[in-house]
Amino acid sequence: MDAAAMNALLAKQKAAHLRDGEPSAQVRIDRIDRAIALLIDNRAAIEEAINQDFGSRSREATTFTDIAASIGPLKHAKENLAKWMRPEKRKPTPAILGLFGAKAEIRFQPKGVVGIISPWNFPVNLTFGPLAGVLAAGNRAMIKPSEFTPATSELMAKMFAGAFSEEEIAVVTGGPEVGQAFSSLAFDHLIFTGATSIARHVMRAAAENLVPLTLELGGKSPVILARSADLDVAAARIMNGKTLNAGQICLAPDYVLTPKESLEPFIAGAQASVAKMFPTLKDNPDYTAIVAQRHYDRIKGYIDEAKAKGARVIELKPDGEDLSQQEHRKIAPTLIIDPSDDLKVMQEEIFGPVLPVKTYSGIDEAIAYVNKGERPLGLYYFGSDEAEREKVLASTTSGGVTVNDVIFHVAQENLPFGGVGPSGMGSYHGVDGFREFSHAKSIYRQIKADKPLQQMRPPYGPAIRKYLDGQLKR
């Protein structure tokens, strides 16, 4: 689809929005129900398409992370949207106007047409997840899925076309040129999930039409292991988060900071947990391949550079398999111990199953290390020392935090999910998603009696001066 056709489609959706007006709760629920049905009815096809796109990805992992994890937000929105739609009462100011009968409220109005640019790592979830808030807020949507997962993108195009008119939801497929044109459209709101480098281009394009943005990006999400942490539990949870989807997750732990004396026990715990989850890797359908050759080469480049510069590199291959010759692009979970900060693995978001582990002496040193980098999407603290935990939470800034695990804060529908600075702007999930994709319209109803207002008009006299003197007191 070229730019002219995309503009025509956007115009068609905007015209339908104006023609039909603000949708009722029943209409919104019907659209959400149709989205849920698409996920349930196409489960096998989704599993197959994503497996095809990755070369090897567990069907169970796909159902867990892409299908079930999408149905949850949709059901949550369906159950709560009628409550979210209610006007929110506010107190008038100055308060005396309220005594005379003035009213103030906020009404949440659909923005209109929302563009969704979704990534390849969880192509279904990161389309349907935002869609929960978009539909709950009463909007229509145009979706541009990733060209890196072509089978899944084409499947979603067919799925939506079979359940929605293109006036409601439309899918636009294509490569970078299509994506660039899509991000230049005059949407009423645009949400982009992906790399920070691409987000800069999206933001520039959206700025031409002053399109409000939600950017869900990434960054180097740190793990701080405290001296009070249960190392075996921590290692198991960290490595589960790092090996899920082979680390191709925006919230995957990107590096670990551990006390020096805990380093070797953590390494042993990581080895044991990987061996338990993945006794083999090469032909194990539970272990995901890297999505594309260029990403495989990039991640291998991190490992090769670390080895060349003398870092201690530990490949976690329980069966000792040779992965140099394989049908798919699998990389073993790999620890890089105390890497220097000039390595690319410490400068770029890894997005793969490689985990640097650095040591620290005191918690202040760990906090300072986190703070010298850009603000990440997630931060993870393991430990039972409440005072230390609160110090870490108060002294660092990240999009969100999970304590004593990784990634889990993204699964909380009652918490907003989003980044800060280079890791994103805006947030969604639950009521926060509904509000992100709504226009909060302020409405003030003036009092009927005119006499109290007359003192604000010329000619000014003692009454207005008395009022102003009262306002200027400390």
Please tell me about this protein's structure.
This protein is α/β, with parallel strands linked by helices and 474 residues long. Helix content is 44%, strand content 17%. The strands form 4 sheets. A 7-stranded mixed sheet has the order 10-11-12-9-8-13-14, sandwiched between helices. It has a 6-stranded mixed sheet with strand order 5-4-3-6-7-16, sandwiched between helices. Helix 4 runs parallel beside helix 6, helix 6 packs across helix 15 and helix 10 packs across helix 11. The radius of gyration is 26 Å and the shape is globular. The termini are far apart. The mean pLDDT is 96.
Structure summarized in a few sentences:
The protein is α/β, with parallel strands linked by helices. The chain has 17 helices and 18 strands.
Chain-wise SSE layout:
Elements: H1 3-20, H2 25-41, H3 43-54, H4 59-84, E1 88-90, H5 95-99, E2 103-110, E3 113-117, H6 125-136, E4 140-144, H7 150-163, E5 169-171, H8 176-183, E6 189-193, H9 196-207, E7 213-216, E8 222-225, H10 231-243, E9 255-259, H11 263-277, H12 293-308, E10 312-315, E11 334-337, E12 354-360, H13 363-371, E13 378-382, H14 386-395, E14 400-403, E15 417-418, E16 424-425, E17 427-428, H15 430-436, E18 438-445, H16 451-454, H17 462-471
Parallel strand pairs: 3-4, 3-6, 4-5, 6-7, 8-9, 8-13, 9-12, 11-12, 13-14
Antiparallel strand pairs: 1-2, 2-18, 7-16, 10-11, 15-17
